[in-house]
Amino acid sequence: MNSTVTDATRAVSSQPAKLLEVKGLKKYFPVRTGVFQRTVAQVKAVDDVSFDVWQGEILGVVGESGCGKSTTARLLIRLIDPDAGVISFQGKDAARATGGELKALRRDMQIVFQDPYASLNPRMNVQDSIAFSLLAHQFPKKAAVEKAWDVLEKVGMNPAQFGLRYPHELSGGQRQRVNIARALALDPELLLLDEPVSSLDKSIQAQVLNLLGDLRQSLGLSYIFISHDLHVVEYLSDRVAVMYLGKIVELGNAADLYDRPLHPYTQALLASVPNIDPAKKRAAPPLMGDPPSPINPPSGCRFRTRCPFAKDICAEVEPPLLPAEDRLVACHLYSSASRMNGAAKHAAATETTATPPSEHI
Ligand code: SF4
Q: Residue 10: which pLDDT band, with cuts at 50, 70 and 90?
């Protein structure tokens, strides 16, 4: 995408545009066995997931390991194909894009993975690693190297000093900066950040998070920021989606969600974060046991086997993700009356805030 045109559009428009719309996204992985590799079950990794991302927004996605957050990112950028659902990126059908359309999608939507070393080719120096994707998009060699130097500067690395170094000559934080620079090389609109700081020391984490925050401001980028670390997600995100066993269970404004979690799983997750205040010390662990297998998830609400508030209906009816108070929640605790209030507040918020919430907030 031509970044100059995009920036000009942002400058004249006070209402951010919807960049990404995801509806009913599903991915089931077959479990095969025997000589004939017959499918005997399916892992429901992502099961009917819907959300939007607005231009310039950071959507955090948080949840325990195996909840489907990384699979969702891989589906969005089509590293794996969805079984069902809509992915509309910049108004185009990304779920079924092929050939040139898929190439364009991967230019405008880039991903940064958790392991900065594994993501880099050990035989390529830094500037060649960054220039590689530009060459694949038919950039002339000289322009590709110039762009590589430009994005290295953007991520706070001196190109003259680091351009000819190899990955083994860099620290973990420097390698992740190179990965971010590589993701920026094609002037994307949306970065999928999949646990981008999880493998880094705490002090380096803070530097990389600050860098990501600065880049969002200076380049007008949007992020989907995936992490199991609640603090890290809170630090960067405008809105947060909480995932459990392949589903979004709560989605709302980050400050409100952290201040007043509604879904029992979100409450348990936040309560599980260590607190040094002795007054807030807990006698019982807030979240007991492991999540059930995604091959055979519990009937009704998937959280019911660990939920202290579970009722009969929770085993019988799957709670849909619907407006409750100021956000979306999938839980039977929120009555239809509170949901109607939520829908009304939701509609009012649409008229007064710069970020228009949709039916998916
Ligand atoms: Fe708990 Fe029931 Fe709400 Fe699920 S629907 S989180 S089991 S109260």
A: very low
User: How far apart are the C-alpha atoms of 187 and 1, rounded to whole Å?
Assistant: 7
- The residue contributing the CA closest to ligand 1 atom 3 is 331
For 133, other C-beta atoms within 10 Å of its C-beta total: 19
Mutate which of 247, 267, 311, 332 for ligand 1 pocket (most atoms within 8 A of beta carbon): 332
- pLDDT tens digits, one per residue of 291-306: 888 888 999 999 999 9
d(CA 233, CA 62): 7
Q: In what helix (H) or strand (E) does residue 240 lie, and over which residues does it extend?
A: strand 239-244
Give yes or no for residue 12 having a pLDDT over 60: no
Question: 244 near 265, Cβ under 8 Å?
Answer: yes
Alpha helices in the chain (DSSP H): 3-12, 69-76, 99-108, 126-136, 141-154, 159-162, 172-184, 202-219, 230-236, 254-259, 264-271, 312-316, 336-352
Distance 135 CA to ligand 1 centre (A): 51
Q: What is the DSSP letter of 167?
A: G
pLDDT digits (tens, 9 = 90+) for 138-156: 899 999 999 999 999 999 9
Rounded CA gap, 134 and 102, in Å?
Answer: 16
The 3-state secondary structure of 241-288 reads EEEECCEEEEEEEHHHHHHCCCCHHHHHHHHCCCCCCHHHCCCCCCCC
CB 318 within 8 A of CB 301: yes
Tell me which residue has tokens 């086997």. 305
Query: CB count, 10 Å around CB of 303?
Result: 26
| Ligand 1 binding site (Cβ under 6 Å of any ligand atom) | 264, 301, 303-304, 307, 309-311, 314, 319, 331-333
Are the CB atoms for 222 and 57 separated by under 8 Å? Answer: yes
From atom 5 of ligand 1, which residue's Cα is the shortest distance away? 331
Spatial contact of 124 and 206, defined as CB atoms under 8 Å apart: no
Burial of 285 by CB count in 10 Å (0-12 exposed, 13-18 middle, 19+ buried)? exposed
**Residue 360's pLDDT is what?**
38
Which atom of ligand 1 approaches the CA of 332 most closely?
A: 5
Q: How far is CA 321 from CA 227, 242, 248, 331, in A?
A: 21, 11, 8, 8
